[in-house]
Structure formats: structure tokens, C-alpha cells
Amino acid sequence: MSVVGYARVSTREQNPEAQEAELTAAGAERVFVDHGASSRSDERAQWRACLEYLRPGDVLVIRALDRVAGTELMAIEIIRDLGRRGVRLRSLTEPFLDVDTSTPMGEAIVGIMAVLAQLRVSTIRENTNRGLAHARAQGRVGGRPSVMTPERVAAATRMRADGQSIAHIAKVLGVGKSSVARALAKTLPPTSAGPSPRQA
After folding, report:
1. Which residues are tagged catalytic?
2. What is the CATH number of the domain that holds 103?
3. Could you tell me if 93 and 64 are in contact, meaning their C-beta atoms sit under 8 angstroms apart?
């Protein structure tokens, strides 16, 4: 049996030495380290090398679960995969992870974690959809609020009817030309939109 460590830092400017020292102190005989790698990626070079190095009966030691997984569902899949391979996962900061997933109790714990993670994902999705539906019902379609308030739209419409250019209107209102053009396109019919926009 070998104790193997894995460390990761998000940017190349960060120093992983503290993690490496903790893992070595915890008994890791070899530590794999990824620099500047996202925890959401499965293609981390040293993570792949670590997985290939592990053998049945080994213990993988990490500082925290977020070092190896960027989402709860990804974490659960990793725990299950390691368990199927006979590798035990141990977190230095999350004692509840030190379970033997090859046993019925260990698999049950992982199953509960999976249900809770899926429930959280579903809840977030449901709340997002409910918020979007409410916004649509209120006449909003999401995204940033337009800089063209009703007052600005009314002013732009009057100035356009007086023959002012898009550029001039935008300068007076203190907004971008594209914002003015979009707002006028919604309020003025194509045949009565006035003179074509001047770019100066």
C-alpha cells in the first residue's frame, strides 16, 4: 500500500509548497502537483498521472475536495471511481470523506452525497427558471438593464423627429450610439424613422 498526495493551485503564480508539506506530513510518499489548472477539468496533466499511478489498496491524500473536483457531482464521481478501483480517498480538512466506498456503508454515504448534490443542482435550476419566468412576466428578458430609460427614449424620439443624427443624440444623452439606434428601431416604424444615421 502506498500513500499518494495530490495538490493543485489555480494559477502559476500561486505556490503549492504549503499543500505539499501538509501532504508529506500526512504520510504521502509521492505528491503530484498541478499548476494553473482548473478543478473542473479532467485533463489536468498531473491529475491524470496521479490516477494512473494509483493501485488497489493505495490511499490518495488531498488537502480538500476542491483540489480535485470543481463540482459536487464531479467529486462524487471521483470518489466512486476511486472506490471501484480499491483506492481510498482521505481529505485533511474534511474527515467525512475518509470512508471505504467498497463497503455497503461507504457506498451509502456516497449515495446520500449524490442525492444532496443533485438536489442542490435541481434547486438552483428551478430557482433560475422561476426567476426568468417572473422577469418575462414583468416584461423583462434578462441581462443588464438598458441605459435607454423611458425618458431617454422619449427625448431621443423627439430629437430624431427634428432631424438630429444618432451620434448627436447619443452625445446629448450621454449614451452609446448603438443604444440609441436600438431604442429608436423599437419605437419608430422603418418608413418614418427619419434621416439615415450619420456617423460623425
Report:
1. 10
2. 3.40.50.1390
3. yes
